[in-house]
Amino acid sequence: MHRSIVWKTDQGWTCSGCDWGYPISIAVTDSAVRRAYDNLALSEFGKHRCPEKIATQPTPTRRNEFLEKMRVLVMRGLKPAAAVEQVLREASVDHRDNPGMLEKARAEGDEFLRRVEEGYL
Ligand SMILES: [Zn+2]
C-alpha cells in the first residue's frame, strides 16, 4: 500500500491514501513545540492503516474528538485549562440531549490535562 504523509497548509498533516489527518496549526511558532507536534504526527501517521480505517469506521465518529479540539485550541495559544473549559462549554450546547457525549467530553478533558501535566499532548 503506497501512501505518504502530506502537508496541507489549511489542514496540517494528512495522508495521501485516506482521510487521515493530524491538525497542526501554523500559528505554533516555538520551534521545539513545533518539532514535538511534527514528531507526534509522524508517529501517528506510522500507526494508522488506510484500508482498515475505512473498513472499520462506517460512521464518522472519532475516538478523541474533544481531546483533539482542546489540542488545537492550545496550539492557537489558549491555556490548557481554558481550552478544556471552552470545549466543554461547546459540548454542553452541541450535545445537550446526549449525556453520554458530555461524559466523554469531560473524560477527555481530564485525560488532556493529565497529558499536559506529563509533558506530552
Ligand atoms: Zn492513510
Short description:
The protein has helices at residues 31-47, 50-56, 65-75, 80-94, 99-118; strands spanning 5-8, 12-15, 21-22. It has 121 residues and is mainly alpha-helical.
Description:
- By secondary structure, this protein is mostly helical.
- It has helices spanning 31-47, 50-56, 65-75, 80-94, 99-118; strands at 5-8, 12-15, 21-22.
- Strands 1-2-3 form a three-stranded antiparallel β-sheet, with helices on one face.
- The structure holds zinc ion (ZN).
- The site of zinc ion has 7 residues, from loops.
Number of individual domains: 2
User: Could you report the average pLDDT, rounded to the nearest whole number?
Assistant: 84
In percent terms, what proportion of residues is strand?
5-15%
Which descriptor suits the 3D outline?
globular
What is the C-alpha radius of gyration, as a whole number of Å? 15 Å
Helical content, roughly? 55-70%
Structural class, please? Answer: mainly alpha
Number of helices: 5
Strand order of the largest sheet: 1-2-3
The count of β-strands is 3
| Low-pLDDT runs | none
Q: Sheet with the most strands?
A: 3 strands, antiparallel
Bound compounds, each kind once, are: zinc ion
Helix-strand pattern: EEEHHHHH
Q: Span from first to last CA?
A: 29 Å
Task: Spell out the blueprint of helices and strands.
Layout: E1 5-8, E2 12-15, E3 21-22, H1 31-47, H2 50-56, H3 65-75, H4 80-94, H5 99-118
Antiparallel strand pairs: 1-2, 2-3
This protein binds zinc ion.
